Automatic annotation (TrEMBL):
The keyword Transmembrane helix applies. It comes from Aureimonas glaciei. Keywords: Cell cycle, Cell division, Cell inner membrane, Cell membrane, Membrane, Transmembrane, Transmembrane helix. The chain crosses the membrane at residues 27-48, 137-160, 180-202. This is Tol-Pal system protein TolQ. Part of the Tol-Pal system, which plays a role in outer membrane invagination during cell division and is important for maintaining outer membrane integrity. Belongs to the ExbB/TolQ family. It is found in: Cell inner membrane; Cell membrane. GO terms for cellular component: plasma membrane. InterPro entries: ExbB/TolQ_transport, MotA_ExbB_proton_chnl, Tol-Pal_TolQ.
Length: 238
């Protein structure tokens, strides 16, 4: 009896490795697992990339604000920024100044029309910058919400396959049932491994993107007010 009990306990232990469970799973369950593993790898790539980009973007904003409020003339700042590719506040500044210079070079007569064109240039550039900040965050949200259900689908298919194998073998002892159930549950575990970091990262990164967007909007409004005063000063009174 003791030998039988020891062999029953040793059988599940021999098949407990994740690698063995993966190879013993059916085709559909394997496909689910591989898809979830691929989604998990891509999720971490997005998390690392966006975290680095947000950090760099935040430093660029701080540098631009220091230069903008340092007393340097707008013309000098525009000349230095227009010669290179800019993002963030720099892109807003260049877009507004470019419209400003074009309008005055062509002899703009309507201050209201000039102000409207500057506002439109700021809005378009701001929308483009926000799209860049929020790009690929939707993938994190999708993985965070869908991965557990995809893993559950793999688990259901695996359990159904295990029950069919049990019915065919006509054996219902734990040593026969446990490996099939473990293979099926592995799909759910991988789904959770993919979903949990995606949900946490989405909440964190979307919050960071909103804060950066608010800084851009605040600068756009403030710079628009500055240019509006400049327009009033340049427009002769009637």
């Amino acid at each position: 009896m003791n030998e039988v009990a020891q062999s029953a306990l040793a059988a599940p232990e021999a098949t407990v490795s994740l690698w063995h469970l993966f190879w013993q799973a059916g085709f559909i369950v394997k496909a689910v697992m591989l898809g979830l593993l691929g989604a998990s790898v891509w999720t971490w790539a997005i998390i690392i990339d966006k975290s680095m980009r947000f950090g760099s973007f935040r430093r660029q904003l701080n540098t631009f604000e220091n230069n903008f409020w340092s007393g340097q003339s707008l013309e000098e700042l525009y000349q230095s920024l227009s010669e290179k590719k800019t993002t963030g506040m720099g892109a807003l500044f260049v877009a507004a100044m470019r419209e400003w210079k074009k309008s005055f070079e062509k002899g703009a007569r309507s201050p209201i029309g000039l102000h409207t064109r500057i506002e439109k240039a700021l809005d378009v550039t701001l929308a483009r910058e926000m799209d860049g900040l929020e790009s690929r965050l939707g993938f994190l949200a999708t993985i965070g919400s869908a991965a557990p259900f995809i893993g559950l689908f793999g688990t259901v298919v695996g359990i159904m396959t295990s029950f069919q194998a049990i019915a065919a073998s006509k054996q219902t002892n734990l040593a026969v049932v446990a490996p099939g159930i473990a293979e099926a549950l592995l799909a759910t575990a991988i789904g959770l491994v993919a979903a949990i970091p995606a949900v946490i990262a989405y909440n964190k990164l979307s919050g960071d993107a909103s804060k950066l967007g608010m800084r851009l909007e605040a600068f756009a409004d403030e710079f628009s007010a500055i240019l509006s005063r400049q327009i009033d000063e340049r427009t002769p009174a009637r």
